[in-house]
Design brief:
Order of helices and strands of chain B: EEEHEEHEHHHEHEHEE
Structural class of chain B: alpha/beta
Strand content of chain A: 15-25%
Number of helices of chain B: 7
Number of domains of chain A: 2
CATH topology of chain B: Rossmann fold
Shape of chain B: globular
Bound molecules: adenosine-5'-diphosphate, magnesium ion
Number of strands of chain A: 12
Oligomer: heterodimer
Number of strands of chain B: 10
Number of domains of chain B: 1
CATH superfamily of chain B: P-loop containing nucleotide triphosphate hydrolases
Strand content of chain B: 25-35%
Helix content of chain B: 25-40%
Largest interface: A-B, 23 and 26 residues
Order of helices and strands of chain A: HHEEHEEHEHEHEEEHEEHEHHHHHH
């Protein structure tokens, strides 16, 4: 009781110093929480991939197509249950410089695509309408909310890979089954794309961006990948087949250097928190050397001294940590709003909160360690001599 | 009764041993008011600290009211100090964040006295030193003499038998010093406290029954 009272009074002794320390810790904890959120959001893509989903793409690069004729050939390979395909459409919607307008647009096969991606939930009645209308499209709930898309709205996209003006009618809105499901995509009929491109650029029809299929047995996936790729090894369009997880990881690892550096910075921040706090606690307890000696003279125990120094350190760490955590949410929110489609899922996770709180608490303990040991080791006679 | 027998003490500075006290023997009967004088660095504070159980001798024994102080464990010694000795320092050493009342209450927090009893004791002690009207003041709001009187109230609030004072008037003007000495004199005469006081000030030493001189670690 007395120790707590003295801890608070001591913390208020140099109000500016305490305030600056709390602010410093808050800023650092906020940065830590934010960076961890970015790192977590990044890895969601990998987590969201299904365990038995496989992707076949052009061996040269993701941007080169595959012939439509591969569909039945691949589907015949044993161990493959359901196959579908998609083309990256791209194009520009409204002002392409605005990040909000950059959401994935893909041409897909309405009959099979959602069988391979069961985590995309489409209301059955909407699905029926979508499947019947040539230029219909499905949008994710997240972009529908962001852009105010409603059933019946027309989305006009200026093509780039596939030139021309494209109008799509929103006929369905899908939601994600899991928290990690990407709700920022737009899908339309591959047939519509294929037919129009046959008119515009004859010869470019019958092309597939990539095939996606399910393996009946996840453990057979490497063998299946090998079978598919061997089948086309001497074809004009060679293939590269891998599990979706590997595929996503390939994506993620392209940027893994950046992510790794964010991770490193987040750990450097822990060091900064510690230094900011330790600086204050070391200074404060040095100033109070005589007071600790007086308390010991009167009969106060080492436990009281530990409580005074550790208590002040933890108090400042807790206030700074709490403030930092509270500020992490608006920061993450503002970031998510600035780049709405950059990360399909961008949430401050509970584990991030726990991690940041733990960092602050551990910093509180560690910062108090050396000043406390020093205060306990200083004999009363030395401590009393400290001022004169 | 304080019995200091053949006590020696030295400090280690770097690798050198610096002898501070050399085979000191003193006997202070109950109710005595002893002044220790001597030049700076002669070991007065060190001897006072040994008697008060703040420091330990290298050699010899110190007995206070029958307790061999030097033989107690660290925590037992802390307990013993809390029960038996009151301390008065040259620079008062009040905690600046606590009021006069709270400073005087400090030693009582280690006892199991209820809050109400503690308040009575603190008020009595502050009344005794003439500062009943300054209980809510912080040290900053008090004069040096008043601060020292608060420190004296803190030293006597647990009713110890021995008071040790290290240059209690060293930082005070003449009037305040006079008040502090009158107070110590009264504590000795009226309340029968045994007082051991280190001082440079001959006027302060006049109040003592007995004056001892320390020079280069030896009594003269
Ligand atoms: N903790 C210590 N470490 C080293 N030397 C000390 C220590 N305490 C006291 N001394 C030395 O012991 C001598 C006596 O000190 P002290 O008892 O304070 O003298 P006085 O109070 O008479 O001025 C001085 O030379 C002082 O420097
Ligand atoms: Mg001295």
């Amino acid at each position: 009781m007395f120790v707590l009272k003295l801890v608070i009074k001591n913390a208020l002794r140099h109000k500016l110093r305490t305030l600056l320390t709390i602010t410093g810790i808050a800023v650092a904890v906020m940065s830590f929480g934010f960076l961890r959120t970015v790192v977590t959001a990044w890895s969601y893509g990998v987590e969201a991939s299904a365990a038995n989903r496989m992707i076949t793409r052009n061996a040269v690069s993701f941007i080169f197509p595959l012939p439509y004729s591969y569909r039945d050939q691949i589907a015949r390979i044993p161990g493959i249950s359901q196959i579908t395909w998609a083309n990256w459409f791209g194009g520009a919607y409204k002002d392409p410089a605005d990040f909000k307008n950059f959401f994935p647009r893909m041409a897909i096969d309405p009959e099979t695509y959602f069988l391979v991606y069961p985590e995309l939930i489409v209301p059955p009645d909407q699905m029926k309408v979508f499947a019947q209308e040539r230029n219909a499209c499905i949008v994710g709930k997240k972009i529908a909310d962001q852009h105010g898309f409603k059933i019946g709205d027309v989305i006009t996209v200026e093509g780039d890979i596939y030139p021309g003006r494209w109008d799509f009618v929103v006929r369905a809105i899908y939601t994600g089954r899991d928290k990690s499901t990407d709700e920022t995509q737009m899908f339309f009929h591959w047939k519509y794309l294929d037919e129009r491109i046959r008119e515009l650029q004859p010869g470019r029809d019958g092309q597939i961006g990539w095939y996606v299929f399910l393996a009946t047995d996840a453990s057979k996936m490497p063998a299946i990948a090998q079978t598919v790729d061997e089948q086309y090894v001497n074809s004009r369009a060679g293939t590269k087949t891998e599990s979706e997880r590997e595929f996503q990881q390939g994506f993620v690892s392209m940027s893994s250097a950046i992510i790794r550096s964010l991770e490193i910075v987040s750990f450097i921040i822990i060091g900064i928190i510690l230094l900011v706090l330790a600086n204050t606690i070391v200074m404060a307890s040095r100033e109070r050397t005589t007071e600790y000696a007086v308390l010991k003279t009167i009969g106060f125990s080492p436990g009281h001294i530990i409580g005074l120094i550790g208590g002040e350190s933890l108090l400042i760490a807790a206030l700074g940590g709490a403030l930092g955590l509270v500020l992490t949410f608006p920061l993450a929110g503002a970031f998510a709003q600035m780049f709405p489609t950059f990360f399909p899922v961008f949430n401050v996770e509970t584990v991030t909160i726990i991690l940041a709180a733990t960092v602050a608490a551990v910093a509180g303990v560690v910062a108090a360690l050396f000043p406390t040991i020093r205060a306990l080791r200083t004999s009363i006679a030395e401590g009393l001599r400290a001022i004169g | 009764m304080i019995e200091v027998r053949n006590v020696s003490k030295s400090y280690r500075r770097d690798s050198l041993r610096v002898p501070v006290l050399n085979n000191i023997t003193i006997s202070v009967p109950d109710g005595e008011f002893l002044a220790l004088m001597g030049p700076s660095g002669s070991g007065k504070t060190t001897l006072l600290n040994l008697i008060a159980g703040i420091d330990r001798p290298d050699d010899g024994s110190i007995e206070v009211n029958g307790t061999n102080v030097a033989a107690l464990s660290e925590s037992a010694l802390a307990q013993w100090r809390a029960n038996n000795v009151g301390f008065i320092f040259q620079f008062y050493n009040l905690l600046p964040v606590l009021t006069a009342f709270e400073n005087v209450e400090l030693p009582l927090l280690l006892t199991n006295l209820p809050k109400k009893k503690r308040r009575e004791h603190v008020e009595a002690a502050l009344t005794l030193v003439g500062l009943a009207d300054r209980m809510g003041h912080y040290p900053k709001q008090l004069s040096g003499g008043q601060e020292q009187r608060v420190a004296i109230a803190r030293a006597l609030v647990t009713d110890p038998t021995v008071l040790v004072a290290d240059e209690p008037t060293g930082d005070l003007d003449r009037v305040s010093a006079g008040e502090v000495m009158t107070l110590l004199d009264r504590l000795n005469k009226e309340f029968k406290k045994t007082i051991v006081m280190v001082t440079h000030d001959p006027r302060a030493a006049e109040k003592a029954h007995k004056v001892m001189h320390l020079d280069k670690g030896e009594l003269t």
